[in-house]
Design brief:
By secondary structure, the protein is α/β, with parallel strands linked by helices. 47% of the residues lie in helices and 11% in strands.
């Protein structure tokens, strides 16, 4: 029996194509996939026959649901090196995509969360489809919005990044376009045509050729549901502390605000506090510094309680009833938050 590769690589014309190929696991990223992607992107960068790179997900459910955090969870319990290597190499890959000299196009139809956002947001173009469902949901698993979230989330309009990362809100295609998370909307039925047209294009013209194809196939994503809440998001998520944000949401009196507060009540208090601090610090750092900061945070989370409990509750036992520790925001003191940003000495992420 031959095993299916977890990532497929092919080249059509000057277009190099990556297909994430773990459809039963929503194409969640394994360390093996991260390594294969890194190696191939490095070689395509030097390959004159490659004019642009496109990434997509196999199957009909997901672009990429995130990192294979279940495997990281097992390693954390059994003391494996994956808790260090996975984040180290994933963030390095995010940086490679950010710095990539050739056009990098992600077809982000269907589920695109966490690590999937990291594979797409740092590239040149994100093309949403009919069933795009994009989120940074890590506060639900005792983690924080990594893969450069500390860089791109505070750079979204207003307080959208704070809202997205604290609540884990799910964005549809029109919302992604509204916030600039997606650069284009192309109807899903036309995604294969995007690939065919890019494969047939003269990509030596660089970005102009790619933009011509994408704008010709672009459609109207419809009305963004969150558009109506933009001003509420900016007003109610403006607070400098998680407590102040929840207080504002509770004081508002509207249904939407109450729903947001109810969601925050289910998230890890520690995750929410470190996330707000991550975005605050990240707003003034470049991507390299953000990824180094996030690596410190990831390692602190491996040593803490909530990541273990979050994965247990959401992905292992699936009872969706995490018992966070500390259980309340007031118990998450400054020292605990600060511990997530402490230097790692010999173990720092280095480029
Ligand atoms: C929050 C998350 C993730 C999540 C669920 C959350 C995440 C992630 C996965 C996931 C989904 C399917 C898989 C898998 C992992 O779920 O980051 O291995 O098969 O990767 O509520 O952040």
């Amino acid at each position: 029996m031959t095993e299916e590769p977890e990532v497929l690589f092919e080249q059509r014309g000057a277009l190099a194509i990556i297909t994430l190929n773990r459809p039963k696991a929503l194409n969640a990223l394994t360390l093996g996939m991260v390594r294969a992607l890194q190696e191939r992107l490095d070689s395509w960068a030097e390959d004159a026959s490659v004019g642009a790179v496109l990434i997509q997900g196999a199957g009909d459910k997901a672009f990429c649901a995130g990192g294979d955090v279940r495997a990281v969870w097992y390693a954390a319990r059994e003391g494996g090196s994956l808790t260090r290597e996975f984040f180290y190499e994933e963030y390095t890959l995010n940086r490679t995509i950010h710095r990539y000299a050739k056009p990098f196009i992600a077809l982000i139809d269907k589920v695109c969360m966490g690590g999937g956002v990291g594979l797409s947001i740092h590239g040149s173009y994100r093309v949403a489809g009919d069933r795009t469902l994009l989120a940074m949901p890590e506060t639900a698993i005792g983690l924080f919005p990594d893969v450069g979230g500390g860089w791109f989330l505070p750079r979204l309009p207003g307080r959208a990044g704070v809202w997205m990362s604290l609540t884990g809100a799910r964005l549809a295609a029109a919302d992604c376009v509204e916030l600039g998370v997606a650069t284009h909307y192309v109807p899903s039925a036309q995604h294969e045509a995007v690939i065919e047209r890019l494969a047939a294009a003269d990509l030596s013209a660089g970005k102009a050729a790619v933009e011509r194809v994408l704008s010709e196939l672009s459609g109207d994503p419809g009305t963004s549901e969150i558009k109506a809440y933009r001003s509420d998001i900016d007003r109610l998520f403006a607070g400098g502390t998680v407590e102040a944000i929840i207080e504002a949401l509770r004081a508002d009196g509207g249904d939407w605000a109450r729903q947001q507060a109810d969601i925050l009540d289910t998230r890890s208090p520690t995750s929410m506090k470190i996330t707000l601090e991550q975005l605050r610090r990240g707003s003034e750092l470049d991507l390299d510094a953000v990824l180094q900061m996030e690596y410190r945070m990831s390692q602190a989370c491996m040593e803490g309680h909530d990541f273990h409990e979050g994965i247990r509750a959401v992905l292992v036992d699936k009872d969706h009833k995490p018992q966070w520790k500390p259980a309340t925001l007031e118990e998450v003191d400054e020292a605990l938050v600060e511990r997530h940003f402490a230097p790692l000495g010999e173990r720092e992420l280095r480029f």
